[in-house]
Input
Amino acid sequence: MYRLVELRIGRKQRGAVLYIALIILILLALIGIVGMRVTGLQERMSANYMRVNQAFQAAEMDARQVEAGIDAAVNSSVGTYAADQEVCAPVFDPLTWAESLDSAQGSYTRRIDKCFAASSLKLGEKQSEQTGNIYEITVLSSDSAGNPSANAVIDTIFIP
Output
């Protein structure tokens, strides 16, 4: 008699494991799909970060080359450097300049030491009008010369 009861309980539960297994399988498949999408998104984000970093490093290198050229010209026998803009007007906007370029690379140098009055550190003494050579260097560069996908603009002040 005891055995009959056991068989009846077993027959009532037949097929329930199949439904539970299918539900778990569907849940695992959904977790796998979400994991693949997250991984793909992270891969695209890291590739974009790499391209932006390469563009920034290229712009930084170009800015340092312009600075080295200015330094060599100022410290040479000539003693001067001919900037792209020697006067204060018109006002220069680096972003507008970068958007106006056709290529993904360029530099613009502006002499700004004459655009503001210098001041003496000692109160009551005459202010000096000579501030020396102060240059604003703006550089646009991209991650790849052939197929640029990221650009960087650097605007620096250089005093040789």
